[in-house]
Amino acid sequence: MSAFFRTYPRQKRGVTMPSLFERSITELKGVGAVRGELFRKLGIDSIGALLYYFPRSYEDWSRPQPISALSGGETCCVRAKLSATMRESRLSGNRYMVRAEVSDGADAMRIVFFNNKYITSMLKYDTEYLFYGRVTKDFSGVQMVSPEFLPADRTVSAFRAIYGLTAGLSNKAVQKAVEQALTLLPSQVSDPIPEDIREKYNLCGLRDAIVNIHTPQSPQALKRAQHRLTVEELLVLNLGILSLKHKNSEARGTNISQDFTEDFLSLLPFVPTGAQRRAMDDCTRDMLSGTSPMNRLVQGDVGSGKTAIAACACYNMVKNGRQAAFMAPTEILAEQHFATLSKLFADTDVRLGLLTGSLTASKKNQIRTQLENGEIDIVVGTHALITEKTSFKSLGLAVTDEQHRFGVAQRSKLLSKGKDPHLLVMSATPIPRTLALIIYGDLDISVVDEIPPGRQPIDTMLISTDKRKRAYNFIRKELDSGHKAYIVCPLVEEDDSELMAAEEYAAELMLREFSDYAVGIIHGKMKYSEKEKTMREFAQGTLDLLVATTVIEVGVDVSAATVMMIENAERFGLSQLHQLRGRVGRGDSKSYCILVSDSIAENTQRRLSVMCGTSDGFRIADEDLKLRGPGDFFGERQHGLPKLSIADFSDMDTLRVSQDIASDILADSPDLSSDKYRGLRASIRRLFADSAGQMN
Ligand code: ADP
Ligand code: MG
């Protein structure tokens, strides 16, 4: 572990932001045990964390609209006075309604309140108010239902913060708590970004930023606050990631002395593609001569043959007398890699082991003992590899497959099992290169931009639901010729109602359309072991058809699968569709992907037709980025990064600023040990501590 994560003695110096991180949220008035629990649900356990819980959006009370300009559908603010008597009317079931008319001097609009007995006494006839709410418009004119209102002359913050909430916790409650927390901010807040840097990059101070992000005094102040806090978050992320990089240039203990790549190639049942060969050579070069251990990302589309690249690196390490560990995010994927490597190395003296959570305790112990004694050369496994109990005799290389499924912290945990081992991470999530450099800023990158020859492109078509029967017929034909198929249902929330819908759908398929076939279902709420069991049955051919949610996304190779039908395709991002589609077309047979969607939105049609037109994951990622915007693209926490609260990678300029600052700081204090960066060290620890347990 690098120096950043060491514990430094805490200096006591009055009230600092860090000390607010040590004060429980329940110290605030109005936040008792019950409400405290709700805050905790939002990830807020301390007063400091509350102050860093930034609003999701703002109500703009600063620019009242003239009523004549309202078109219906917008949410906005209107400055107006009551212009007719309020009328109460009874509705059924003890409910009642208050209607009133307000005028801005030129035009009038209706306002309506339900079941609010105080309204008639709260609203005064001679007072001008700001009404804020959603506008609707019909034949009888414009109206606002249950608007919020404030006397127009009362100074309010121009913007009112809207927070992400959880059931039982209102926006008002969060606002109130935040207001209180703000009063606890000392007048001199110690700022993690030192003053000289703030000056150089024109950033406002932390106190200003925190106050204005919650209670902006003007649009400009809000902007400055957002900019400053975004820069801070990216800076902390940046420094944190860099700190995971091997720093010690003397760390050459695990370098290999001889290149066995040619030997390895003679074991491979195929000729590597040019891109595979380049990536293999990149790895060998890193491990042979690097002044610091290899730190490489192999990024290649699904099916580009990344496993062989990893196998080559492992072989080189083993032939040079050290061990290699190959970590996969799921058991079934680990088993598959284990089987692949066992076949590949069958006629060699390479000794393989498999270590997964579901092995019996005694089997696990046996594997661990062999690893410790150096009786296993390559171990393939899941996160069982990084538990405390696992240790190696001399780990020289750590490989992680499907890197986006692992947290940054897990990667470094695997590394800590050896003395400066080399690191190879593999990812199929296609990210445009510029962004990859930022996210994986600590890594060198090999791009595998070639698909092995002879692979037939997957025929992709887009159909509407009325063609579904024909699609079923088509799938049956494929099954009859011995192939396998997937039907994917999107479960966005994976909540109970969606789950039921998916299960009902599967049941219907089993009973009707595919009653003569073995149908299985797999979804995110199933127990891990059940999922693995179903997936295994499908991989081994016991099941013909698998009805699935997105859990099949990651790397499993079922070469007999030739069709995938994706329901409600419009609900998926393009990159996700591409990953899903990559589950078919892995054998010699022609494969198909059927996208089902009734959405007629032009944007959706355009998005989905991109899928039909290309099988190039990088092009698809670019399109995805263009059509959906980076916010969405990265919103899914796909990249094993800690959860960010304000930055969204969309703003390249801000990103660049944070990188510039990071290099300034590292030039000044390479391991951040200078007292000046005490605050930053604390922020880094907090950001990465949160993500330590993240997996899947
Ligand atoms: P990835 O992990 O990149 O999605 P895999 O390593 O699982 O891809 O490879 C996909 C399939 O392609 C495997 O069945 C593998 O044996 C095969 N394969 C890999 N490289 C080649 C190659 N150069 N020529 C032919 N087949 C290959
Ligand atoms: Mg793979």
Question: How do the strands and helices of this protein lay out in sequence?
Answer:
Blueprint: H1 17-20, H2 33-41, H3 47-51, E1 57-60, E2 75-90, E3 96-103, E4 108-114, H4 119-122, E5 128-138, E6 141-145, E7 148-151, E8 159-162, H5 171-184, H6 195-200, H7 206-214, H8 219-244, H9 261-267, H10 274-289, E9 295-300, H11 306-319, E10 323-327, H12 331-344, E11 352-355, H13 361-373, E12 378-381, E13 395-400, H14 408-415, E14 422-427, H15 433-439, E15 444-448, E16 459-463, H16 468-480, E17 484-488, H17 496-513, E18 519-522, H18 528-540, E19 545-548, E20 561-566, H19 574-581, E21 592-596, H20 602-613, H21 617-628, H22 630-635, H23 652-668, H24 678-690
Parallel strand pairs: 4-6, 9-14, 9-15, 10-12, 10-13, 11-12, 13-14, 16-21, 17-19, 17-20, 18-19, 20-21
Antiparallel strand pairs: 1-8, 2-3, 2-5, 3-4, 5-6, 5-7
Helix pairs in contact: 7-8, 8-23, 8-24, 10-11, 19-21, 20-21
Bound molecules: adenosine-5'-diphosphate and magnesium ion (MG).
The site of magnesium ion (MG) has 4 residues, from helix 11.
